[in-house]
Specification:
Elements lengths: L1 H14 L2 H14 L7 E5 L7 E5 L3 H39 L1
Antiparallel strand pairs: 1-2
Amino acid sequence: MLEILNLETEINILRKNPTYRKNKHYLNLLDGSRFGSVMMSIPSLDDPSIMVRIRKNSREMKEIRSEYRVSQSEFTVQMDELHSQKARLQEQLFDNKK
């Protein structure tokens, strides 16, 4: 039971990670940019203090979107592994109680 709680804590720490949250936010902006200005500003992944102005639906925007997806997938893989470990432990715990 303690291991399950530890895994849940690790999952919550990852969800609250500032990098994860910022990547998710900017990825949503890049994916959801359908209306409005033709140009948008988004921080560079290499140096977040630098804002990059990109044209919507341009090749550069697609490259930046793919970089954000790669960065986000690192967190997603970790969270998926933790979720599967948690599910496996819960299954073992509740199957043993029957």
